[in-house]
Design goal:
428 residues; alpha+beta; Rossmann fold; D-amino Acid Aminotransferase, Chain A, domain 1; nine-stranded antiparallel β-sheet; 15 helices; ligase
């Protein structure tokens, strides 16, 4: 099978590593890829959001299956363009990708399908949004309706913070068009987890669950990021609860999407809050998360390519999908200045040393090779140092030992990924 993987981040490096192990694979192309994916296939200089360019590349290289990594090309209609070109795609149509492309759309689906979620209201006028938060007690959540790279959600602890968020998004357009319309929700309280499943029409098969660490600083302090690390599986959310959540959070959505004539085919990522009243949906994403994908895929025992092909060809019931019972963790090494203006250009060394350690794997994200062929930082989130272990404590020790082996003077990372999970396991 000739495969085109779309994307350039750590998620795509982890996906490429899993796909490259498949006996079904004849050739792997990655657009645009990064230095890590270049060791597993052929990187192609086509942007992930260049739908026309991706289709031309797929035709030129006689691609059998397109595998989207990030959300932007899906919301832009990559799967639809693949269908028109007669190329299989393991991702949802533009209409189905609105589950991530519009917070309003997701809320309407939840209401129609009876999926528990936070109370909400939508506003496209800043004055009305401000009046709403002034009439509602804080904390309250303000969300950009459109795609905002995981950074369009503000959990406002007081009225001033909520008003600032509304003005930033709606008046100052800090998130561009994504924030011209906002969804304002009640603030759910509990543990947040990420649930993943392969989906094809009304069928869903569990991938697993992870717990992301969004804020930049230790102790969940500072601004939100795209994710600074993840543990899998989350404490208190075992496979039995994950399977039950598929029945309440994912399968009703799939039925509603099919009823509307926009069936969902791809990977669904359901962000859930484990509240005292039970699980509630925070949002859907229409792809694997990052860095959750890295923590999940290092536990994969079966053939990822076969599963993705089953999704694309509506044969999910036939797929063999198995993950180990090990614990896993990913620790993101970001560039100093992230999530603002990251410092780029710093030379990165020691990855090979880290990967010689038991259970450790390093996935590249915002990196490039300089004129001398050295690996250098080229983005905000740069590396994900991942590890598996018989216990979460062992996985955590291995991952941070891997971080310690890497030499890069501009690196920042959280020192407490997995600490909260271990404390809960210990009952403290």
């Amino acid at each position: 099978m000739r495969v085109l993987l779309v994307g350039s981040g750590g998620r795509e490096h982890a996906m490429a590593a899993a796909i490259a192990r498949s006996p079904l694979l004849d050739a792997l192309f990655i657009a645009p890829g990064n230095p890590g994916t270049a060791a597993l296939g052929t990187n192609c200089n086509v942007r992930a959001d260049d739908v026309a360019g991706l289709i031309k590349l797929a035709r030129d290289e006689r691609i059998d299956l397109v595998v989207p990594g990030p959300e932007a090309p899906l919301v832009a209609g990559l799967a639809d363009a693949c269908a028109q070109a007669g190329i299989a795609c393991a991702g949802p149509s533009r209409a189905a990708a609105e589950l991530e492309g519009s917070k309003t759309f997701t809320k309407e689906i939840c209401d129609a399908a009876g999926i528990p979620t936070a109370r909400w209201a939508r506003f496209d006028n800043a004055a009305d949004a401000l009046a709403h938060v002034r009439a509602t007690s804080a904390p309250i959540v303000v969300k950009a309706d459109g795609l905002a790279a995981g950074k369009g959600v503000i959990v406002a602890q007081d009225l001033d913070e909520a008003e600032t968020a509304i003005r930033d998004l709606m008046t100052d357009a800090t998130m561009g068009d994504a924030g011209r319309t906002v969804v304002i929700e009640e603030c759910l309280v509990g543990d947040e987890v990420s649930l993943f499943a392969f989906c094809a029409g009304e069928d869903a098969v569990l991938i697993g669950a992870a717990q992301d660490h969004k804020r930049i600083g230790d102790g969940d302090t500072g601004p939100n990021t795209g994710g600074m690390g993840a543990v899998s599986p989350p404490t208190g959310f075992d496979r039995t609860r994950q399977e039950a959540a598929l029945d309440t959070m994912v399968r009703p959505m799939l039925r509603e999407m099919a009823r509307r004539g926009t069936p969902f085919h791809g990977i669904i990522f359901a962000g859930l809050m484990l509240t005292p009243a039970g699980e509630k949906l925070i949002e859907y994403n229409v792809r694997l998360g990052d860095p959750e994908a890295q923590a999940l895929l290092i536990r994969l025992q079966s053939d990822l390519l076969a599963a993705l092909a089953a999704v694309a060809h509506n044969r999910l019931a036939e797929a063999d999908i198995r993950f180990s019972d090990e614990a896993s963790i990913s620790v993101v090494m970001a560039a100093r200045g992230y999530p603002g203006r990251p410092v780029t250009g710093g030379v990165i060394e020691g990855i090979a040393t880290a990967e010689e350690m038991p259970g450790v794997r390093v996935f590249l994200a915002g990196t490039r090779l300089d004129a001398e062929g050295r690996l250098v930082a080229a983005g905000g989130r740069v590396l994900a140092v991942c590890a598996t272990g018989d216990t979460l404590e062992q996985a955590r020790e291995r991952a941070y030992a891997g971080v310690g082996a890497i030499r890069w003077q501009d690196a920042i990372w959280r020192h407490d990924i997995g600490t909260r999970a271990l404390e809960r396991m210990a009952g403290t």
